Structure formats: C-alpha cells, structure tokens
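Exercise 7. Given the components listed, write out the predicted structure of the assembled complex. Treat all entries as one system.
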Amino acid sequence: MAGHGHHEESFVSKYIFSQDHKMISKQFLVTAIAMGVVAVLLSVLFRIQLGWPSEPNSFVHFFLGDRWAPGGIMSGGAYLALVTIHGTIMVFFVLTGGLSGTFSNLLIPLQIGARDMASGFLNMLSYWFFFVSSVIMLTSLFVETGAASAGWTIYPPLSALPQAIAGSGLGMTLWLVSMVLFVASSLLGGLNYVVTIINLRTKGLTMTRLPLTIWAFLITAVLGVLSFPVLVSAVVLLIMDRSFGTAFYLSDIYIGGEALDVTGGSPILFQHLFWFLGHPEVYIVLLPALGISSQVISTNSRKPIFGYRAMIGSIMAIGFLSFIVWGHHMYVTGMNPFLGAVFVFTTLLIAIPSAVKAFNYITTLWQGNIRMTPAMLFSIGLVSTFVTGGVTGIILADSALDVQVHDTYFVVGHFHIVMGMSAIFGMFAGVYHWFPKMFGRMMNTKMGYAHFWVTMVCGMGVFFPMHFIGLNGSPRRYYAYSEFEYLNATVDLNVLISVFAIIGGIAQIIFLFNFFYSVFRGQKASQNPWQSNTLEWTTPVEHVHGNWPGALPVVHRWPYDYSNPAYEEDFVPQTVPLKPGEEEH
Amino acid sequence: MMKLLIILVVILGIVALAQLAKVYEHTRELRKTREEDISYADNRMNAFLWILWMIVFFGSSLYLMVKYAHTLPESASEHGVALDLLMDVNLWLVTIVFFVVNGLLFWFAAKYYYRKDRRAKFFPHDNRLELIWTIVPSVVLAFIIIYGLKTWNTMTGDASEAAIKVEVTSEQFKWFVRYPGQDNVLGAVNVNMIDPGTQNLLGIITEESIPARIETVDASIAKEKEKIDSAAKLALLPASAVEAIEDKIFRLERLKQRILDIKNYEVKGVSAWSAGADDIIASPAELHLPVGVEVELNFRSKDVIHSAYLPHFRAQMNTVPGVPTRFKMIPTITTAEMREKLDDPDFDYLLLCNKICGVSHYNMKIPVIVETMAEYEAWLATQPTFVASEEPAAEENATEEVATEEVAAENVSAELITNED
Ligand code: HEM
Ligand SMILES: [Cu+2]
Ligand SMILES: [Cu+2]
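Answer.
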C-alpha cells in the first residue's frame, strides 16, 4: 500500500519493478500471452507431423532447422520435446501463472475494496520469479541436447536418466530449475491472495457478499498453497536422484549396458507426489475460469447468478475433493485394486458439485436478457466445454474403463476440452470483460465475435475427434501413427484435426491484433461499461495508486442484484444501501 | 520460398486487419456508437449462431459417434466383453447428458438474447430445483460407480492357480517374453545378472548363471586393471583418465558384491534358482497364448516405465523397474478366427507400448498370437530353454537337447503343475 498519494514515479518503478497490483496484473497477462503464442506455435508444428507424418515441410524446417528437422522432417526427439514444453507452458505458464496471476491480481483488491495487495513487494517478487522461470523454460528449447522430453508429467526413471533420452540432460535440469522458481512465484502470489481476501475486505463486504470470482480465487490460492510445496518436494528428490546419486525413485535399472547401483527406490512414489499436486492443479486452472464466467454470465444475462450459496459450496467441495482423487491417474500402475476403487469413488463424487455448477449456469441464462458481448460468448462456450469435457471425465474416472483408454487420445481429448478450451475460454472472457479496467479502453467487439466463433469451431474440431482416435486404441505421445495397421482406421481424423489446429492457431492473430491495437487505439472506456454491480467499476478509468481517489467504498449488498424488481434500473451496485424494508439475498 | 510466402501472408493479413479497424473506427465515430452497446442486430446474429452451432456441433458429433465409436474389433478377451458393455452403457449415459445439457444451454443462449423492452426474471435461487440436480446426478453416479467397480473387481482379482504364467519384460524399445517351462514357476531374476556376453538378457539366476556372471565381471575388472598397469609402465595416461578407470573398477567391484549378495529363496517348495533352468524365452519375441485358458501376465521393466497395452484384449498394465506388476485375462478368439472375422489375412493382435519411454516409444510392439492349445504347445516345443553359457555354440546344442526332452515331458507337465499346488 506504499506510495498512495505520491505522484512522480520513475519509468522503472512504474512499469518494471512495479508494486501496484494493476500493473503487475498486466505484466502477468502480457507474459502469459507471449508464452501462449510459443505454446500454440509448438502445437501447430507437431500437429503438422501428426497429420502428415514424416513428410518434409518447410514451415517445420524453418523453425526447427537441420538439427531437429533434418530435411524438413521433425525428428522423434524433437517431437517429444515440443509436446513436453507445449504442455508445460500451457498448464503452468498460461493457465496457472497467467490466469491466476492476471485476474487474481487485478480483481482481488478492486472487488474487495482494498488499496492494493497485502504485500506489494511480495507481489512484485511473485511476478519476477514467474518471469525468470518463463525465460529459463524458453531457454531450455535451445540447449544442445534438447529440451525436457519426458512429457509434462516428467515421470522418472525417464526424466532421471540422460541415458534414456537426450532431453533428460541439461534440458531437464533447466525444466526443474524453472519449475522450482515457478512454484516460488505461485506460493508468493497465493499467500498474498489469501491474506488479502481474508484481511482487507472493505466495510460491509462479508464473505457471503463476495463476488464468485473472489471465492474462486480464494479457493484456488488455498489449493495452490497446499499442493505446490508437494511438487517442490517431488522435484527436489528428483534433482537428488539426477545429480547426487540418491535413489528415491530408482531401483533395479539396467540401461546403457550397465546395471545401475540403485536399489530400493520406487518410480511410483514420484507419481503419487506429482499427482498430489497434479490433480488440484487442474482445478487451480479451472476454478478461476469458472469464477470469471460466473461474473460475466450474471452481468450479461442481467440476472443474479442462480444459487449463489450453492456455487460457493460447490467451489469448496470441488476444492476439498480435488485433494483425494489423485490416484485416478494411476489405475494401471499396478496399484492395489482396492485403493483404485476408493479413488473411483472419490473421483466420481466430484461430478456432483460440478453438475450443480453447470445447471446453475444454465438456469442463470434461463429467462435472462442476454447481451452477446465477446466475454459472454466465451463464457457460454466455457459452460458448454465444461459439460462436454466433464462427461468424458466420468469415463476416465471408472478404473475398469480406464484400463482401455488410459494414456490414449481419449485422455488428450478430455483434458484439452476442459483445460485447453474451458479454462482458456475463461481467460479470454476475462480479458474481454476487464480490458476496459486494465487499459482504460475497449476491445473491438466485431473482432471479438470472429475470434470466438472461429476458436469455438476449431477447438471442437481439434479436440472432439480425439476421443474417437482414443477409443480406437491410439496411444498418446506417439511421434507417428503409421507403424501399426489397426491405427489406419483413424488417419483421416488425424488429418482433420491438424487442419483445424492450423486454422485455429492462425485465428489467434485476430485476438493478438485486437488486443494490442486496442491497448493503444481502442475506444476510450466509460467507467462502468457493462453496467455491473461490483466494486471495480466504481474506480476511475484512469488508474490511480490506491485505486479509489477518496475514501474506500462501503458495501451494502451482494453483487448480483440484477433486474431486482424493487429497482427501476436493471442493476444495483454493491455500494447502494438497502431500501427500508428491503431484504438482502 | 514457402517461408517467404507465409511471412508475406501474415504481414498482409495484419495490414488488412489494421485497415479494417481504421474504417471501423471512423464509422463508429460517425454513428456515435459505443463498443459496449451491443446492437439488436448483433445480439440476434449471435443468438442465431448459437442455434447454427448447435446443429453443426450435434450433427458432426453424431456422425463421429456412428462412424468411429467402434472401430476396434470386438474384444478378444473374456473380461473385455464385460468392459465393452460397461463402456457402451457409460457412453450412452454421458452422450445423453451431453446432448441434453448442451442443448438446453445453446437453446437458452439463443432464446433469451437481449431486447430493450424485455426485463430478465429475478430468480436468485430455488431450493427445490437445486435439490433435484444434486440428487439426480448422485443417483446416476451411484449406479455408474457400483456397476464400474463390479467389473473392476472381477478384472483385478487374483489369477487361479492353474493359470499359465507368462512374463513380459520391457526395455527401450523392445519386449521379452518368458515362459516358466514345465514347473510353471518363473525362475528368479536380478538386474545385476543381466549379461549380454552370456546371452542372459533377463538376468535369470541359476546355479550356473551366477558363476558365469562373476566370471564376466572378473574379466572386466582384470581388463581395466591391465589398462592401468600398462599405462603406469609407459606413463601414457593422464591422471584424470586413470581416475576414470579406477572409478570404473570400483563400480565393477560393487557390482560383483551385489551379485554375491543375491540370496536364494523358495517358490512353492522349489528353489528359485532351480526354477529358471527350464524357462523359455520366446525368440523372436512374440506373445503366444492358448485360447480359452487363463493367463497371468507378469510384467517387469529393465530401464524406464513402459506400459504393456493390448487394445484388442482391452488390457493394459504399466511395467515398472523395481516394481513387478500383473494382469490376468482369458483370450477368447484365436488369431486365425479373428483374421477370418475381419477378412484380413494379415491381421495380428498387438502388444504395444503406451507409456512415454523414449524416442522410439511410438514403435515398440510385438505380435500376440492366440492359438489352440495344441498349436501353442507345439510352438513352445520349438522354443529354446534358458541356459547361461559363454559359448554360443554350446548353448545351441544344449537348447536342442532340452527342447527334445521337453516334448517328451509335455504330457506329464500339466499333471506336474497341478500336483505341485
Ligand atoms: C492450438 C491448440 C492446441 C493443439 C492443437 C494441441 C494439441 C496437442 C497435442 C496433439 C498434444 C499431444 C498429445 C500427446 O501425444 O500426448 C498435446 C499435449 C498437451 N496439451 Fe495441447 N494442444 C493445444 C492447446 C492446448 C492448451 C490450450 C492447453 C492448456 C491446458 C494444452 C495442454 C496440453 C497438455 C497438458 C498436453 C500434454 C503434454 C504432455 O503429454 O506432456 N494444449 N496438445
Ligand atoms: Cu486428476
Ligand atoms: Cu513406450
């Protein structure tokens, strides 16, 4: 909160080492967009390989060069490296750092009526750890032996032994270092978010008057703070195994013509530790997106979000359950079948709060008065993909069925529809919706429409057919699907997917253009363009340190009084006192 | 050329977008409209697009479902039939949910688009409704859980004692298949015993293979020592190279110690070290299975995690270094029958790798051949038994001998197994 009131700021303290949450939020967003561009480019490259396996391609050659694509044909090692870094960037850098970093930072102080985060300094550190970690991850693409190639889940022994795959040399070391910094960033951010939400709410803003965005950010931060340290432990033990001769994850290994001097470790231990983070992680990715869509859907339907308390309950239930389901990633590791059964039970329980959320969204639309802003389109799209990806999760949660589809393209289809579409849609929705708050200008609506519809069609065109490739028994992380006869049944789908992926990838230029163009040339924003109830729209368009020029706003009601029959206007900001005799919801 | 073209297209595209945006900006100023005011036409257009999307999306989903949901042939294992049924029931359920819920969503999105003269219904909650959509999913899920776990339990129970044991071992990027021989007991193995020099690729332990292994290790140690000795005489090697050799010797000594530390144990009253002598290692590596008989597949891995995936049998199990795993199943359709059913004389069942394991992960497979008991036994009889030996020539002789013995013993072998139990 330092600095409220002083005006002369140097360029460095304003734009680079800023401690202002609004600036930090923009830094996160721009970094995440840059990382996202890289990750999409990587996916287009390996999709070209999968659609037209081992055909020389000059586009591929242009990016990978002779080393990784001799003769314009991507090498097997390059393929695995690209897939690994693509997944890592998307999950961690775009959807964890990027999504939470941008919107938790922007919205927490603004929506709870605080002048800034509890600690501006830690917040700044959080961004810079994130930045350095991003740079290291990108650098790893350029090392001589190649980037990490063991998949974003980096299961040892593959990730532990450079003898097993070249990417497990320096590339993996950089991956691990980057990830430790990333976790540091995430913890600094997360602790700050939790403390700020608990302590700095303005007068009148009780927990049951919080916007659902804030609830989602809160639970997300708690999940992160509880689960990321476990990832660090897993990573540190892996570093020990790699560099200091321990054998936490290694036992009975014969590789490179030599029996290694390791006994007693277990590769399965790593998987338990990894997925103890890994499953909460998918909700760390998803919950903020759901929070954003709750806000956007309610505002643009001109209706209260349906079942506000049930929504909070669902978020909490999902958050809690997400800690006791990690084993569903390990049904075929040889785990005790009874333990597997327990995980089936807990995993399918999550479907209940998720279903509640989906139905509540739909009911919110029912009899609404829906403004088709780009943010709204993305939010409706999010609900659709959340449902579509959710139902295939029910198949995967069933251990017996997972035996057939585990590690096949069915899984790839499933998680892309929930993460690659739902969560990304939430992020887009957030950008379109809060762009006026971030940059004081509006994004172009028409381009937003084009962006949404092309992305929706291409996204589904890419990820929906993957389920069928998986049902046909196509393993994931395969460099080519040409070595097995039975896979010919789905070659045409692989080509179709690649075509959609290329179009969808190129279409993101519309967004990039719209974004950067509008930052500088967009229409100047008005103070409350969406006629929304929440506190961020009571701040001036021009950013000021401390957010509100005068006293902090005082809250009198919940944030969802849209079309309240007691009022003429179809929205009632949270700062409006209750009328005499009016009952609160 | 292609590069240039791509760059050109991208640049042109951006320039075109910029021009469009400018024109747009001007008209917006002329008309005095604001970005956030969504016009009636835009609202209606998007409402229309939701319906259009629903039709396209549902239509193409249906098309994919009909055309691609069952591209794999019917299951060739007993549990696979149950699994397929479970899969179909679940897919039906979730497909219905998919259509109904998405349908409602798209429909509402389209129907309630913004009009100035309308006002949204203020409807913040309704306990009855919320109770319904908590309870209905719970009931459906209870069914899914119970049905799923029933199938899971039958799939994962222990194999019967009479089951044929087969061991499948993975290594970057190949598979080994080992049969237990007459005693139906797989001989003990140890990673330190793996010795390409004596053809002991799986590290099988027998009374003979241990001394053979020690001999190779001793020979390596001697060779390294000699290097140092000769180097010392001539002062040829730099100190660092000598250190490297000394390090290697140290590691070899440790290896030898680990081999000497291996302890024998008993399986079903048989010494584990004696059980390996009659083991059969399929060559070329193929997984032969008799039809209609339960098999217990035992999995090991030599280097990293792999996964033995048998899509035609709806079977999969990871192979984990240091952690043995297993999977039991009963093949029900012979390869010959399946070839006939599919009208494809070249068809083969496959066992392939389904866990990322290195650059050739995408091409790590062996054929699986399901045949009648008689064919299976005839095939087994042609396979060599394991003998650790330094001279490949002697090995050949030995295997031939054992192989003939085995044919003779074949008839009694079944009895032997049951007697042991
Ligand atoms: C242009 C859009 C995208 C395309 C065409 C695409 C395609 C793919 C493909 C083909 C794979 C490899 C699957 C395999 O062999 O295992 C993959 C992996 C992955 N993708 Fe994407 N993807 C896209 C966007 C995204 C997004 C937005 C996310 C965000 C969550 C994401 C997350 C992942 C993850 C986590 C993996 C797993 C990486 C691994 O196997 O280690 N992808 N993607
Ligand atoms: Cu999970
Ligand atoms: Cu593999």
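Discussion: Confidence is low (pLDDT under 50) at residues 1-6 of chain A. Residues A 40, 43, 47, 83-84, 86-87, 90-91, 95, 151-152, 412, 416, 419-420, 424, 462, 476-477, 501, 504-505 surround protoporphyrin IX containing FE (ligand 1) (CB under 6 Å).
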